[in-house]
Amino acid sequence: METKYARKGSAVYAALAATKLHPSADTLYRDLQKVYPSISRTTVYANLTKLREEGSVICVGVVDGRERFDANTSPHPHFICDQCGTVLDVEGLPKPPSLDRQAEEHNPIHVSYHELVFRGLCDACAACEK
Amino acid sequence: METKYARKGSAVYAALAATKLHPSADTLYRDLQKVYPSISRTTVYANLTKLREEGSVICVGVVDGRERFDANTSPHPHFICDQCGTVLDVEGLPKPPSLDRQAEEHNPIHVSYHELVFRGLCDACAACEK
DNA sequence: TTCGTTGCAAACATTTTGCAGTTTC
DNA sequence: GAAACTGCAAAATGTTTGCAACGAA
Questions:
Q1: What are B2-19's pLDDT values in tens digits?
Q2: A110 vs B126: CB contact, 8 Å cut-off?
Q3: What is the pTM (predicted TM-score) of this model?
């Protein structure tokens, strides 16, 4: 039985952890609405901010002006479809050796991590192009 | 002598090509105002859009909600300071061998290029942290 | 005269903030 | 009761669009 002010923070995390689609705040909001019809966008945004500060959620990029989130916080490469905006995890790449230290060697920077993002077309969009 | 309707499109490109700061549209607008006091944000945005469609300009990422642009369109790694938002070119990295083809091998994707972005603190911000 | 460029104002979309009611401890 | 959570409404911000005036060819 849902009350108006039920705790929804953990639901935001659970919804994000349950998908591989790297949803935006709004997509997450729509998904959560199905279970919590009274949830507000403000709550989704507030909890995403909190989860990000805690380090239990990351933003993997901005697609069409919308931040895309991931509950898998271990650094891993992504793919973004330039046409439909789908965000996928990229599998099967060898771990590059300490790229971060190499970058620091020749530049005035202090690297904590790096992001590797591939761009192109997903299978579905590539099929449409033909 | 500046007229109200002087051609400003090429000035947008020139301003972007003249800096390594990977400015945002608004930064570019403020820079151009010094030379073209009557220039409008609309013109800067319109020309950035056109240049991007032409392929003579790229967006290297979104920092604090602002798109950052680069007239150097050849793919190269960048660094973004998590504190001040500075965007730097990263030098001295060895070219990884056909990462794009490797990614395609194990994933249902068609890669046209990839972006490598290092994150951390720039020298100035690292100094302040101490 | 046709087409592309410019700039103002308004519209848009995503995200943030102010605030008051609610729940938890 | 203090502190944290929720949701509504409004604000803030970056970007786009409608449109009319201007300029180039």
A1: 455 568 668 999 999 999
A2: yes
A3: 0.93
